[in-house]
Amino acid sequence: MPDQPEPTCLPIFSSQNQGWENILVQQFQCPPSELNFHYSDEHSICLSLAPRPVRLLQIRGDKRYKGLYGKGDISITPAKVPFFGRWDSDKRYLQIRIASRFIQSVARETFSKNPDGLELLPEFQIRDHQIEEISMMLLAELKQKNSSSKLYIESLINVLAVDLLRKHATAKPCLSLYEGGLPQYQREQVLEYINENLHLVIKLVDLAALLSMSQFHFSHMFKQAFGISPYQYVLQQRIERAKELLKHTDQSIMEIALICGFNSHSHLSKQFRHLTGIAPKAYRAN
Length: 286
Known about the structure:
This protein has helices at residues 100-111, 129-143, 150-167, 184-196, 204-210, 215-226, 230-248, 253-259, 265-276, 280-285; strands at residues 13-14, 23-30, 33-37, 42-48, 54-60, 63-69, 74-77, 83-87, 91-99, 123-126. The chain is globular, with a radius of gyration of 21 Å. The protein is of the alpha+beta class. It folds into three domains: 13-167, Jelly Rolls, CATH 2.60.120; 184-231; 232-285, Homeodomain-like (Arc Repressor Mutant, subunit A). It has ten helices and ten strands. Helix 1 (100-111) packs across helix 3 (150-167), helix 2 (129-143) packs antiparallel against helix 3 and helix 5 crosses helix 6 (215-226).
């Protein structure tokens, strides 16, 4: 069965052109309607955002479900499973499509699991605080129109994948968390890499690969070692470098933004003001 198009209504927000890897996040607001979809290489998560419960009929594979969907209710459709849905009132929801190859990679790296025998289970109407929280964070970043760091997006996607595997897979793999953070030599290795590459896109997968760790375990141990997430640390370092260049060079704010890894003047200004309380131009003038 070929992949079917999304519902006839267009998404209000979409990450399609934002450069996010392994994931597509879209918010929809649709009148009473029905839809079919079938994704061969993606798992689909739907989170209800409707302010009032919506009566929904779902047919997924050979299983059928009918009930009222309230805000925060979640359904999960694994890759290769056809889905049909029909609703009788305005429906508002967030759909997340996550690449099945990425889920397999996380299973292999984080749990040392053979992904061939690990499949996601279809879920009709569940509550999962972690999935809901991550979904809303992704939606918030989506509304920023690419003003955030890809490192932050990667971190959210990785935690989402781990949560799906831990709670919604055929076999529930056990997650071992290492305590104590990173040893000194590994801290120095990571910080040196970040310092030398602030002008580039710093990816979570590359930071984790430096220490031969899974992305999930790297993020956990980095936060234990430094008290903040990799994304927060990189952002702080970029702002510190911007402050130095603002005070000691006559380069334009646009030039400084690019040197420090921001994608625009406005991106630097927003993050600079958020962390320091003033705009870059005002900081330079002080």
